[in-house]
Write a structure and sequence with these properties.
Elements lengths: L1 H12 L5 H16 L8 H8 L5 H11 L3 E2 L9 H6 L2 H7 L1 E7 L2 E6 L5 H11 L3 E5 L2 H25 L7
Parallel strand pairs: 1-4, 3-4
Antiparallel strand pairs: 2-3
Length: about 170
């Protein structure tokens, strides 16, 4: 919720949405949260997809211009297996952010919530290493997390089906 509130404030500060539109999106956010629809409980998603008062491309361009971020598309990126195995999917959904690579002591993160200080603070505290931030769309994050969830479910079915045949050694 804090990530959404702070993102909303940044959207108003950068004149990307009107206060009334954000208020309406926040009401919808509370409805979705009350229904435990956490995946859809995104102020950015509501403003872009439901209210259609913000173009996500405008936010991405602003992040590139103002924050100096690069853009990444994870659909064609081979995320290392050790990262895929350890990703906390609920936190990735909550922050609309995915750690997608490491190099030496640096972590590379793709985020749709680059203007939310709460998101940055969370990941900085969690990873405790320098972060290279990249901006991406919610669609890219969704595609990546859905593929990862499907991969985990498929692996669980395989593991579960072989469990009776395990030798125990």
């Amino acid at each position: 919720m804090r990530a959404n509130r702070l993102l909303g404030s940044a959207l108003i500060e950068h004149n990307l949405v009107k206060f009334e539109d954000l208020e309406s999106a926040n009401e919808r956010l509370l409805e979705l949260s009350a229904q435990s629809e956490f995946r859809q409980a995104s102020v950015l998603g509501i403003l872009v997809n439901e209210k259609k008062v913000l173009r996500e491309e405008d936010l991405i361009h602003l992040a590139i211009e103002e924050l100096g971020l690069g853009a990444v598309d994870l659909r064609n990126y081979d995320v290392p297996e050790d990262l895929r195995k350890t990703l906390d999917l609920p936190m990735c959904w909550a922050t609309w952010t995915v750690p997608y690579d490491t190099e030496e002591d640096f972590h590379f993160l793709a985020t749709a919530y680059c203007f939310s200080p709460a998101v940055k603070t969370y990941w900085e505290k969690k990873l405790r290493s320098p972060i290279i931030w990249q901006v991406t769309s919610m669609e890219v994050i969704t595609d990546f997390l859905d593929r990862l969830q499907a991969e985990r479910e498929s692996l669980a079915k395989i593991t579960g089906s072989r469990a009776p045949f395990a030798t125990g050694t």
